[in-house]
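A note from the maintainers: we've had questions about how concatenated examples are separated. There is no special marker in the raw files; a new sequence line simply starts the next protein. For clarity in this README we add a label.
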Amino acid sequence: MTDEELNKRFDQMVELFAQVDKRFEQVDKRFEQVDKRFEQIDRRFEQIDKRFEQVDKRFERVERRFEHIEVRLDQLDKRSDENVELTRSVETALLKEFRKWAISFESRFKANEILVGGFNERLIALEERVGDIERKSSNGHS
């Protein structure tokens, strides 16, 4: 190969390297664009992460409120059971006292019935005697 061919070949190589450099510059620019896009995506993910943290905090507050509500419901359930038991014991006591009163009232009623029955018998006997007396007196005077 001659010097001229070598120089020509060398110039071609230099030109090729220049083209490769340009291509690398273009690739570098594309990588910069991609890096910027990744930075934007990273910022969006950070925003999304912050939103998820906010949502997580809200869910924690809601969970605590539900736990508080569950405790209150348990307390109400216990109080309701206690009230049912109290109502049953009051009901039982009232029924026992009412039964005592009913037994006492029934025996007084029966005693009054017997007494009234005795008065009725005496009244009937008196009515018969008065009727007899009236008949005798009306027979004797007429």
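[label: protein 2]
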Amino acid sequence: MKTLLKNCKHLLRTEINDIRSTDIYITEDIRLIRKNGSYPAIGIKDGGIDFAAQATDQDDDSLQVTIVAYVSLQRQEAMIIGTSRYKGVLEIAEEIITALTDQHFNDQYDSALPLSQGQSEIITDGTTAILMVPVVMQFTRLG
């Protein structure tokens, strides 16, 4: 999982434009509002691993990673769908899915597919309001 998280962070930093490299990071909690950094941002969170041994002694492991698009809640509609000047969370979520789908990371994984995209929702710490959309990706390796 550790290597997968690092690979996702590196790939998203190279593939996603208009988000500072330092604002694409591994997070311990997708609902955590960072004290440093800026928005828009992308948080990467480890998910579960399903281990499945097949009758043929072949392993079929599925690793899930949640990648979250964040924007500062300022211009309500624009923060969801974007404008010519600002990326909305739905646009960032689409870019995450495009960047990671079928990404095999040097043949470490046999498939990489999106499992789900959540609805946009607001998180707040009382002073800052952030709009977020989570995307769950599944990476499968056969061995």
